[in-house]
Input
Amino acid sequence: MNEISGLDKRTTITILVSSGILIGWSFVSSMLQSGPISASIITYGLYLFYWFYALKFRNPLIQRLLVFGTIAGILELITDHYLVSTIDSLVYPGGELMVWSSPMYMPFAWSNVILQLGFVGVLLTKKKGLLAASIILCIAGGMYIPLYEHLAKDAGWWWYHQNVKMVFNAPLYVVVCEALISLSLPFLIQYSEHHHLRKTVYLGIIEGGWILLSAFIAFSIAH
Output
C-alpha cells in the first residue's frame, strides 16, 4: 500500500473497525429503541474522531474523504427535503434540532458513511481496478446502507411510509438510490487523489448533485 497517499495498514484497520462500531451501535440502538439521541452521539463522535485522526496523522486520504463527504452531506439536505416533503416518504421523529427537513446531525452522518464506503472504494480500486471497484461498491452500498436504514427504524432515528415496495424497513427505491450513489464513489475519489484539494470541494458538490439525481432516478423506476 502507498504510505504517502494515506492508504496504510493503520488507517485501513481504523476505518474498518469504525465501520463495525457504527453497525454495532446501530444494532444495539435498534434493540434498545434508544431514539435520536443515540444517532447524534455516534454521528458526532465518529465525525470528530475522523478529523482528529486525519490531522494527528496528517493523512491526506482521510482529509480528502472528509472534505468530499462533508460537502456532499450538506447538499444531501436537498435530497432529504425531496424525500420528506415532495414525495412524502421519509419520516423523522419530532423534538430534534432540525436543519430544513433533516436532523442537524444528518450531513455528518452522510459524511461518515461516504468516508467509509469511499475508503473501501480506494482499497478496491488499488486491488481490482476502477471498473471492478465501482461494480463491487455499487453492490456493497446497495446492501450496507439499507441495513443501516433497517436498524434506524427500530432505533427510532427515522423511517419510511410503507406505501412503496419495501426491502425489510427500507424502500426498494432507497436500495437502488444507495447503489447508484456508491457506484460513483471510486471514480470521483480517484480523480480527487490526483488533483489539488480545491478539486475535492468541486467533486463533493458533484456528489451532492448525484445523490439528488439518484433519488429521482431510483424513485421513478423502483417505487
About this structure: Residues 53 and 59 are 8 Å apart (CA to CA). The helical segments are 9-32, 36-56, 60-86, 106-128, 130-155, 172-193, 197-222. Strands lie at 90-91, 98-99, 102-103, 159-160, 166-167, 170-171.
